[in-house]
Amino acid sequence: MVIVTHDGGFHSDEVFATATLLLISPDSRIVRSRKPEDWEKGDYVVDVGGVYDEEKNRFDHHQVEGAGERENGIPYSSFGLVWKKFGKQVSQSDEVFEYIDKELAQPIDAHDCGIKIVRSEKGLSEYTIGKVIHTFMPLDESADTNEAFQKAVMFAQKILCAEIDAKKYEIGARAKIKEAYEQSEDKRILVLEERIPWEKEVIEAHQDVLFVVYPHTSQWRVKTVKKNLLTFEPRKALPKEWGGKIKDDLASVTGVSDAVFCHRALFTAGAGSKEGALALAKLAVDNFLEG
User: Fold this and answer.
1) What 3 state SS string does 54-70 have?
2) pTM exceeds 0.90
3) How many angstroms separate the CA atoms of 26 and 19, rounded?
4) Are 39 and 3 in contact (CB under 8 A)?
5) In 3-state terms, the chain is what percent helix, strand and coil (to 5)?
6) Taking a C-beta distance cutoff of 8 angstroms, is the pair 108, 129 a contact?
7) Do 82 and 136 sit in the same domain of this protein?
8) What are the pLDDT digits (tens) for 99-110?
9) Fewest CB atoms within 10 A around its CB: which of 109, 124, 154, 248?
């Protein structure tokens, strides 16, 4: 199988599109060209050629009419088009398919189509996946970009596979979170016996949970639950009096002998034991005002 995309400079959309196609056809050969005769030979043609035809595996979006857009108005770029056709085959899950489209494909497509989706704050901007991919471009403009493109594609494939695996793991963790919640005597504190991805599920499905207790390396942690996935603001912060304190100082103010630390931003604290972390969580819920 032959994957054709354009030569010269590259962007995250055709890089991730190519990475996705290599998950479908791992032994494919990549041809980078702007010559129509090379496009004709491609089994897949990505981000070049002026044609979007899913049946013929032509995935360009630069034509006057574009290649369509999602219900939220985000247009499709080459990655989104490839993912729309092959994403369910790659991920083997409708939910993972939707997750990758929302978290990875849509931001990449929006950027490639000139749509701003992130507001700058304090004169700063997000360090996006597009910027990461751009770092693979040679600084010398006369250098051959084919090798750099191959490296970028391999990097993108690792990210894509890691995101798919992480989402599947998160989905699998839901039953454990539900069981732990149902067994909790105080629904404001969720105790997990292992470190699993809990944040999205707890935020969306368990509105009364304020703190989550879980093991972390050689310690046990208490962590606040955010009000939503787009903010750092917690449902309830840890007590102000704990902020920045460690070991004896924290133990003195809390009465928890194996207390280890409390982050100065009041979103997490730790103890040497499960019992210690649970004691910190109970103190934060019952005995102190919101920080």
Assistant:
1) HHHCEECCCCCCCCCEC
2) no
3) 9
4) no
5) 45, 15, 40
6) yes
7) yes
8) 999 999 999 999
9) 124
